[in-house]
Every structure is written in structure tokens, then in C-alpha cells.
Amino acid sequence: MAEFVMPMLGADMSAGTLIAWRKQPGDTVTRGDIIAEVHTDKADIEVEVFTSGIVEKLLAEPGQQVPVGTPLAFIREDGKAPVAAAAPERVPPLEPGRLLISPSAKTLAAELGVDLAVVRGSGPGGRIQRRDVEAAAAAVAERPSPPAPPVAVEGEDRQAGMRRAIAAAMARSKREIPHFYLSEAIDMSAATRWLADENLHRPVQERLLPGVLMLKAVALALHEVPELNAVWQGERVVQSEAVHLGVAIFLRGGGLVAPALHDVDGQSLDELMHGFRDLVSRARAGSLRSSELSDPTITVTSLGERGAESVLPIVFPPQVAIVGLGRLVERPWVSEGQVLACPVVTATLAADHRVTDGHRAGAFLTTLARLLQEPDDL
Amino acid sequence: MTDEEIKTTVLRMLGEIAPEADLAGIKPDVDFREQLDLDSMDLLNFVIAVDQELGVDIPESDYPRLGSLDAFVAYLSERLSASAADR
Q1: How far is B45 from chain A (nearest CA, A)?
Q2: CA B74 to chain centre
Q3: Which one of A59, A78, A269, A370 has the minimum C-beta count within 10 Å?
Q4: What is the total count of domains within chain B?
Q5: pLDDT tens digits for range A306-344
Q6: pTM for this structure?
Q7: Residue of B nearest to A192 (CA)
Q8: String of b and e for B68-84 (b: at least 16 CB within 10 Å)?
Q9: Long-range contacts of A261-270 (CB under 8 A, 24+ apart)
Q10: pLDDT digits (tens, 9 = 90+) for A83-103
Q11: Which fold has domain A180-377?
Q12: What CATH number does residue B75 fall under?
């Protein structure tokens, strides 16, 4: 029997609220199916299941807030017999302001700075006891993250939740990750020419955006400097073979999300454009999937046409690098003794100095610049 | 199609692309992308919607002409008139 647990969908997510089940007991699920919708501070997320089988039992009710890692359902894996006995209890209610808790546990939580909203009570009816608070405090100490952010208070709007989630992730990043930055001005003449020619012959529905070329070039450049395509776990770096680019997408109501485009290095520009368009559309409509939030191995943030000329971005933990792309500007460019007016973009790499150094980071930017001189090969 | 009808259609399409945007407060003579906080993806979606709904394929080379709402309406009016004349 496999557990389907509340996933961690952001660097500092401590709990999520179940909005709805998309599957019911007895339903067959295949890995990748959407099984539930979960509300986090940043967005409403469609959560995928990572086990194929039959939904055996649901343990939480819509509207219930549940700590990360808590079982939400049991799934009988393909080929395995049902487990009738020892049916697990339902997840006890977790309502801010209406917690069942002993007075001494409450005092202890205040002393230890433990957020009671994410403590799972082991007492009768889910009552939180001292040992639960101690366990939660120990878990927080072991995690490579600061204490969980406070749970949303009633009536607080989505915007405030978004800002709080960003604040928690960025503060953690600046506190824990020794950032260093390198920038490179890149001549975009060849890329912009190639793109204009390409789009001239394409139906409007199939046009490519410059951002797609940049994403593909970043993904390919990571083949040369793979240590940047990684996550920091515990006290070590874990490199990823797959290149899942987190793409920072601003939301018009305020804030941003950075969901993953999967396996970017292996996609054609057309596939990438299709996926990129779909991702932006779903990010703004609030229908991202859990894997898109949990999978990025490096992030790209672009200020677009109306942004500033350069950006020094902050690494999204647990990733170890982020690429910032400034606005495309026309600048004097010296080539073979001639001064030309060229479209130029400033690419900045922010990276974790525990993982890599300036020499390798420089190699990444040099490779990125080189790849963008040969857009036909992207 | 009159200019007023084009404007109504354009505003509706913009509302579908950027539902959070305040269309009522849009100034017709100021860059609408800036006012509505539209990025290049939004513009592409908008251009695709114009193509699908009005049958006007806007080349990228014409993008600089599409700054304000007034300019956009004038551009579409011109293209639609030329298209009708060709028929």
C-alpha cells in the first residue's frame, strides 16, 4: 500500500489546504494523474500521483489544512492485494485558532518557536501534546530551512499569502546560500535575425518568442557545466541528469511563480514554445501541477522587453543557481575593429559558492553566449 | 466593421487575455501594453486572437504600430478595409 502525502510545493511550504479530491476510493490512478487540488500560499495546485494503482482510502476532507508529508490517501499499487485491516485514521482537523492542544504543549511551542498549525497531534482526537511539539521542533532543526512561515490568518488575501511565501523562500536563500554573481553581455544579432526570418514564414499561431531561444540555450549550456543543474540536500549537492528549467512568471495581481518546464534540453524549439505558452497560461489561471513546482533544477528569470537592463537574481532553494536575463537593448558593439549597433542582452548567473566557483560559472556564460551565435543549432 | 465595433472587440479580447486588468481605466492614447502590464506572451496571444477572430494576420514588423488602443484600432480598421477592398 502506498501513501499519497501532502507534497512540498515550495521551498518553505509547511502545510497545504486540500481543496478537492479528483479521485475517489475505487478509482484507478496512473502515475501522473491529478488526484487532488491543494491550496498553498502561492497558488492553487493540481497535485499528481506518483504511484499507479487503485485509490483505497481518502484520509483528509476538502477544506482541511494538512502539514507537508502527512498521508492524505492510501493507494493500492498495481498487482498488490488490498489491506482491509488496520484502516488508518483520518487526518485530524487542523484549523488555525481551533487547535486541540494541552496548555503545557502550547507554552512549549511558544518557547521553541514551533508553528502549531503544522504539528500533527497524537493525542485523543488529534490533540497536540508536548511530545508532538518536541518532535516538530526537532524536525524543523533537521530540515535545511528556517522555521515555517505563519499560517494564513482568516480573511488574509491571496496577495499577502503570495508575498509571505516569496519572503520566506528569498530570506532563506539569502541567509543560507553564499551567492556570487557573474554577468556577460551577449550579442543577440544572430539570434534576433534568425528569429525574425523564422517568424516571417510561420503562421501566427506557430511564432516563436525570443525567450524560447534563451531557455534552450541555457539548457544546452548546462551540459557543459552540469554542477549548476542541481539541488542542495542536507549538506551536499545532488546533480540532476534531467534539465528542468524553472521559469519565473510574473502574475499581474502581484508576485510570481517559477514552475518547471521539463527536459528542456531535449525539446525542439516548437515543443518548447508550446510548453512555455501552456505553462504561462496555466500559471496565470492558477492551475499548475505539483511536479511543476517541485521539479525545477535551475531557474531562469527574464525581465522581458520592458524590464531593466540587467538583473541580479536570488537563487530559489534548494536549487544552486539562477540565470537572470535583462531587457534586450541596442548598444555599441565592437567586432573586428568595427563599432556596430547591436541588440544586446545581459545574462547574469547567480550561483551557490558552496557548489561551484567563478571559473565554472564563467564557462557557463561563455557557452551560453556561444550557443546564441548559432541559433540554427538550438 | 466600425471603429467603435473594432474597439469593443479589441477590449473584449484583451479582457480574455488579461482578466485581472482594469480595462475601464485604459487611456486610449497611451501604450496599452504598459497600462495592462502585458508581456510578450500576452501580446502573442492577443495577436493570435485577432487573427482567429478578425482574420487579420499581424506581422511582427508591424508591432511598433500597435502601441496605444487608438493606434491599434486604426491599424485594424485599415487592414480590414484593405481586405474588404481586395474581395
Answers
A1: 8
A2: 9
A3: A78
A4: 1
A5: 789 999 999 999 999 999 999 999 999 998 899 999 999
A6: 0.78
A7: B60
A8: bbebbbebbbebeeeee
A9: A261/A215, A262/A291, A262/A292, A262/A295, A264/A215, A264/A216, A264/A218, A264/A219, A265/A216, A265/A219, A265/A220, A265/A222, A265/A223, A267/A216, A269/A208, A269/A212, A269/A213, A269/A216, A269/A378, A270/A206, A270/A208
A10: 554 555 666 655 444 466 666
A11: Chloramphenicol Acetyltransferase (3.30.559)
A12: 1.10.1200.10
Chain A residues with CB-CB distance to B54 below 8 A: none
Q: A321: Cβ–Cβ under 8 A, 6 or more apart, which residues?
A: A228, A229, A230, A298, A299, A315, A349, A350, A351, A352, A355, A356, A361
Domain A1-176 indexed as CATH 2.40.50.100: yes
The residue of chain B nearest to residue A204, with distances taken between CA atoms, is B48
Question: How many CB pairs (< 8 A) connect A and B?
Answer: 42
Interface check B44 vs A, CB under 8 A? yes
Domain that holds residue B46: 3-86
What was the ipTM of the complex prediction? 0.89
In this predicted structure, the answer to whether residue A244 has a pLDDT above a threshold of 50 is: yes
Query: What are the sequence ranges of the domains in chain A?
Result: 1-176, 180-377
Q: Which pLDDT score is estimated for A151?
A: 44
